[in-house]
Amino acid sequence: MLAADLFAVIASVALLAGVVFTPLGDIRVLAVVIGLPFVLLVPGYALVSAVFPRRGDLAPNSTTEISWVARIVASVAGSGIALTVVGVVLDFTVWGFDRTAIVMGLSVVSIVATGVAWYRRRRLATTDQAGIDFGAVRSTVRTTVIDESAVSVVLTILVVIAAAGAVGVVAEESTGEGSVIELYVLGEDESGELTAEAYPSNVTAGEPITAGVGVGTSRSSFDGYVSVRLERVTVDGDEVTVRESRRLDRIDIQLTPGERTTRRHTVRPSMVGEQLRLTYRLYRTGSDSPLRQVHLWLRVRPS
């Protein structure tokens, strides 16, 4: 049986998925209140639990309280590492550093690490296992309710809700309209259908590549364009440097609130190389900074 803390990790993943992958994700305050604590703590806690399954591993000869403080601090650091690794991996995929892809990546890391933590804890004696069992949770809740007055409990809950709401409002204010803009690319298969499983990887210079560019908006209208460029890059660790860039196409996009469109287009790569990047950047009209970016890695042979 899962310990209460590991169960909480799985429940957090399910809760986040229920917000991000449903219309609830359009409620910016809710997305921030649920998503921010998850990103800061949950993946790291799962990783720490997998690496340190034994009670007191992080702070030997310390009290229970100090041990838990050390575990939480390590969890925040672990979440930072998880986010960095997931971001680097996604940068080499067609999804890029997109919100949905990041959530999926962190969720997978959390679930896998939770499974490893559960397995490693099972191999230890019950008294040596890190974590919290459900009996301890029930005892703590019962003690809190009995020892604290109802007014104190209610006030504490209201303060937490108010603080979370304030964070969400600030995030809403800082993002202007709070609309979610999505960008994705689909490849064309042999039957001419656009699918996420038909991305080209090896092509000949001058050979036509047909793809579908999808753009969607949730709560506001959108007026902008997608710039399509072929780039020669060098990769040094986490750093990607563009050495040469050629624009292949520009796709103008106008959307009404809640609209989504997929535009089919064809490009002909002119550069030759082993590691070229076909990059799609979404811009709002009048802005020099892209809202979204996705790319495909290509090997282009001479014609």
UniProtKB/TrEMBL annotation:
<protein>
    <recommendedName>
        <fullName>DUF1616 domain-containing protein</fullName>
    </recommendedName>
</protein>
<keyword id="KW-1133">Transmembrane helix</keyword>
<feature type="transmembrane region" description="Helical">
    <location>
        <begin position="102"/>
        <end position="119"/>
    </location>
</feature>
<feature type="transmembrane region" description="Helical">
    <location>
        <begin position="150"/>
        <end position="171"/>
    </location>
</feature>
<feature type="transmembrane region" description="Helical">
    <location>
        <begin position="68"/>
        <end position="90"/>
    </location>
</feature>
<keyword id="KW-0812">Transmembrane</keyword>
<feature type="transmembrane region" description="Helical">
    <location>
        <begin position="6"/>
        <end position="24"/>
    </location>
</feature>
<dbReference type="InterPro" id="IPR011674">
    <property type="entry name" value="DUF1616"/>
</dbReference>
<keyword id="KW-0472">Membrane</keyword>
<dbReference type="Pfam" id="PF07760">
    <property type="entry name" value="DUF1616"/>
</dbReference>
<dbReference type="InterPro" id="IPR014495">
    <property type="entry name" value="UCP018671"/>
</dbReference>
<feature type="domain" description="DUF1616">
    <location>
        <begin position="10"/>
        <end position="298"/>
    </location>
</feature>
<feature type="transmembrane region" description="Helical">
    <location>
        <begin position="29"/>
        <end position="48"/>
    </location>
</feature>
